[in-house]
Amino acid sequence: MKALVTIAGLALAAALIAALLQLPPAAVQLPAQVAANMAQSGVEHPVTAVLLNFRGYDTLLEVAVLLLALLTLLTLSGGAAPAPDGGADALLRGVARLALPLIVLTAGYLLWAGAHRPGGAFQAGAVLAAGAVLLQLAGLLPAWVGPQRLLRLGLVLGFLVFLGVAATLLGGGALLRYPPERAGGLILLIEAGLTLSLGLILAGLFLFVTGRRS
Amino acid sequence: MSTGLLYALAGVLLFVLGAAGVVVLAHLLRKILAFNVMGSGAFLVLVGLAQREGVVDPVPQAMVLTGIVVAVAATALALGLARALHARTGRTGLSEGARLD
Amino acid sequence: MTEAWLDPAAWLILLPLSWASLTFLAGPGRGGRLAIAALAVQCALALGLALEVAATGARVHAVGGWGAPLGIDLLADGLSAVMLLLTQAVALPIAVYAQAYFTDAHHRQEATWFWPLAGFLIAAMNALFLSADLFNLYVTLELLGLAAVGLVALGGGAAQIAAAMRYLLVSLVASGAYLLGVALIYGSYGTVAIATLGPLIGQGPPLAIWLAAGLMAAGLAAKSALFPFHFWLPPAHGGAPAPVSALLSALVVKASFYLVLRLWLGPFAPLAQTAAALAGALGAAAILWGSWQALRTRHIKRLVAWSTVAQLGYLFLVFPLLAADGAALQAGVMQAVAHGLAKAAMFAAAGVLMLATGRDTLEGLAGVAGRVPLTLFAFGLAGVTIMGLPPSGGFLAKWLLIDAALVSGQWGWVVVIIAGGLLAAGYVFRVLRQAFLVVPGDTGFQPVPRRLEWMAFVLATASVLLGLRGVELMALLNGPGDGQPIS
Hints:
B: mainly alpha, Helix Hairpins
């Protein structure tokens, strides 16, 4: 079995390398089209424009994927109660308390900066989630159970905002078609909602599972 | 040979290594890590090919961002399933071909 | 556009995403009625879309207003319309079934997040059938795969978790192969929009495109449980709760088959002939091996799951016959639809039988016919489609396949199709014979909610009646009036 896989793998790798070395020059030049439409996109960074405007539909589905992963983790660890925390190191607790405001500030900055340079909702949400995990490891935040109604609302809010904006814009001719003069504001609204929800979802991927035998 | 193409070639090797790992390795954690290596390989190919002609193409970079998020979700799900399996049976691997007929 | 507000394509995606989130908000186990109401609306939307496509041809919805290749296009043509109809037509009865099934005491704890997971599954299916962008299809494939794995793991037991883990690993490697294919295509042509790629991939494409086609086909074949990548399906579909098995066998495996068909007829058409014989051979192996295993197993749901493996083989028999003069494409789509309805009915019936007898084994079925006659009638009707007896949809599909094979002189496939039908009769009758055994005394069967039986019956009847209205369905595939097949 291993021999078979090794041979097949080597053959595939050789074929792929040969294919890459013979690649033709691309027929369609998308960077030019992206640059040409940046003015109507509402943001100033091309990757953010692609993520939230030109291919925003992919982003919508990708948030659904994250929410889905959390749902399945909730079914798996549903009934078990988390084991009580052992006391955490005092140094860790102190550092966590100091770091938390900085983490929130960084997340807010990343959200805002996404329009002009690399950044955006996913990066900000990930930083927030890291903050929550740090708090849990320091013993300042208990593992999550449930989730209860408020937490559920926070988890889906970003996605619902995104869906709401998408549906409202349908009247303008197409799904997710931003009017150019309001694109920037709508994108910021969507990203803000997503930051909150993604932070909660990513934190939940850890906090709903930790401390349990599952 | 531009650096972009070098990245793409490295990505191809990572992909094949990772895929072989998922098939051959027995421990579930190692399978999941191999899957991540495989995904990173595919992303490297996308990003490397985006840079091979000098003008950086933002579309594959956005695709890779989407792909990373999807890979995170899939990894979380896989880890959750592995933990659940271990909690219920104490096993750390799927015995291939075991049929519960 | 005044009609954009009512564009059924967009709402078929937005609606299930919305009710998936709202049922999550409602709490564990809640939200069934919202789901059923929304699914009824979705059925109407799918019907409306199909009628529109039949009248005026394929429609493109450029998401974001940008249009391919910069943006993502949604394409609604005859093939998508048929698959969308199948999805909503199976999902609605199964949702009604599920609501009653999960109220039963034994299964209440399985219901926790069924509704949001099912909502995301339906959304992923709809999004997949409408998408015309290869990378967007990757995201929808992942959404579909993760939702399916989540539903398989709902059972909670060790066997179900192991089955879910195996399914997840196969699904992830398959998606990874697909993604590498997309990366190669983008690297070669600078776009991933199917409409733009079509003209670019002419005769003699570079090696990268051959490899991309191979990788994507292999990944999608694994997701469709084509032999020899079928090993994950029987444990996953056989161990999940009955409504979940119905959704998985009837719908999820069809999505990856649809993608293979779409790529085969569309951008990869110049490359297609090389793999046709291989696809057919693997399909034949699936029919024979799957039917054989269904004849041997002792568990009801495992039997139905092996039947899925066998019936999926028929779908891949279409490929060597596509080039021939004949209705192979229509046959393949008809088989997908008929099998979807029939298999959902079979799993629904199997769920009822397990509730009634309290066990999953064939021996336990002895004498149950008197208690749940409607269910057994439904199982029999579904079996008629699976076996390919007239006037069912399954008969129409297999007849068209045999016709295409005879016209092109490929006799081998005819033998396989007929053998498959006989083997199917074998395993369907295994179940019916056990159920109709006369057993003395009261065997302690549990009462079963009537609604469950009726849903199985509705689905089974639909699969049989499909044969009578099959011509309209296939006309949809041909497009408005000019007889040219839509690809």
